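Feature request, filed as a ticket because there's no other form

It would be nice if the structure record came with a short human-readable summary line next to the tokens. Right now we just get the raw output. Example of a typical job, pasted below so the devs can see what we mean:
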Amino acid sequence: MSANLASSREQNNQLASVSPWRQRFKWTVYALLFFDFILYFIQDAESARYTLNAHSTLFEYARAYVTSIDVAAWFALIILFELETYVLIGRTWTGGTKWAVHGLRLLCYVTILHTSFAYDVTLHQFQNPRPLPAAADVCAYTDGDWSFLRNREYTDLEAGNCSDIGAGPDFYEIGGDAVITDRAGLREGLILAWTDLAESVVWLLVVFVTELAVRLKRSAFANGAILTLLLHFKVSLYVLILAIAFYWGSKQQYFYLWDELIWVFGFLLIDWNIRDWRSERPAGPIRPLEYAK
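Raw output as currently delivered:
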């Protein structure tokens, strides 16, 4: 009992030692990440008008809303990491809480892997477009429900705008969704599809390294040198993510640039927690966390 009491007091002292400005900054970043989810959902709903119809399958709906689903899973994960590395230091999940948390974590990882799969499907679509009959411009396709894709943006094809977008004679249908693009748009879309897939894989590595660092820290085999190496490796992953983000920014996709910056800040906060946890580890055994009775 005395050991647990000492552990609890030391944990409370550690939490109290964090400056108020850091706490305000942390929860401001988390609030921005939640706001990010709202913005992505609105954006996905807008794009879904061009790719979904009354006959769309559940998988097609999931693919249309893949970004907002992915962001929701990442947000849940980062909150779990915050609980483990700051709020509940010195405690561990047990009983029903343990299984609920593990179930939520598994669902998040399945969702994130689905996102990577969806990006791979999109890449395959750009690698295998369906060539359309040659035309001088896209005005030849205004008699249907075609939309023109360029730089992630969809434009309804109408008689009033068809002569101003898309340069012939080569046009392609992407993914069988009545979405058309020209040769330049196809090349651009292929590059963006590759960066989407690469960014998704790099973020998977980030969360894997974070999980490894947290598990090592909670175990009896914690090694400061290994943990430092893992955190340094994560810095190289952040650099790669930011390189992709600034490429998107160069394409005037400022929202995606902003999104990547906020998420990097979010995981840097988790790294900050782990670093402080390393230097101020609570004494005594790790205490169980159960449902309140």
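Something like this underneath would help us a lot:
Residues 1-12, 280-293 have pLDDT under 50 and may be disordered.
The first strand starts at residue 91 and ends at 93.
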